[in-house]
Amino acid sequence: MSDFLIVKNGEAIKCMACDSVSHHPMDIKYKYCGKCKRFIDSDRLGWTDLEPEYIHGMGRNRFTQYMQQEVKDNAAKHLDKFSKEMLKIHQEHAERSAEIDRNFRNRMIACGVLILVVVLLTVFEALLRMGVIG
Ligand SMILES: [Zn+2]
Asked: 3 with 32: CB under 8 angstroms?
């Protein structure tokens, strides 16, 4: 159920919380209840949706109050989003790190095998020259 009711063919807005009715066009447009001093349907309204003349019309106190509520609501959302992004970056970094470690280890093993083959061939050649084998 909606928190407000547009009445009298859109010429007024009724707040379902306090039953007050406003005919102010800006109250209707932005679903503001002057008695509750809050935006009745605040989920729909980002603060950037506010027009400068409305901010002026609201008066400093109403705007400050509105901004404080917006900051509270958005801070939690932004913090949550930020945490998720940081976790994602951390995971990607960890994966990349593990991949680099794996590549490094594989190259070291290949290098060791190559050295071993060279040593064995050298020894084999020396033995052949000395007539021990062959
Ligand atoms: Zn109200």
From this structure: no
